Amino acid sequence: MIGAKLGRFLDAPLSPLLKRIRIHPNIFTITGFIITAIAALVIPYNIKLGGLLILIGGFFDMLDGISARVNNKVTKFGAFLDSLLDRYSDAFLFLSVAWYLASKGEHTGVFLSLGALVGAFLISYARARAEGLGEDCKTGVMERPERIILLVFAALTGWFTPILWIMFVLTHVTVLQRVYYVWKVMKKG
Q: Is-above-0.70 flag for pTM?
């Protein structure tokens, strides 16, 4: 949702900088992943620092696409690598949040974090499977940018359980939205 509406919003302001830097987009992808993995290691011990690291990792993850577009380096492998590392990042973050909440004895939060992780993976799988069947499928209310923003907000405020309830429900609503969208498109075709 946010990605679809603001997907290219930062292209114009960041393009001049990224044309001068000339770092390969995959370096941004890998850097964002490493920072996010470090965030996942930090979260159980320092939740606010973990939240800031998620934000920084997300910024690098955003730069890869802009860099690829402005420097004419868009590749299928780059898209594959970005998607794959995004799934690892999601897993690391949700497992880390579950670990943090388990250490606090918040078992509902642990369940919600793991349930939101399942939803996040199914969102990605639904899109990949639809694309494998020849249909584009980017619909839904809880895509990755929304999940990252909500995780950062939860980490900085400490409101994990209410935010995880929202994420848990909306990740699975998004899966259902994608199922309905693909069903509707294939029914027409």
A: yes
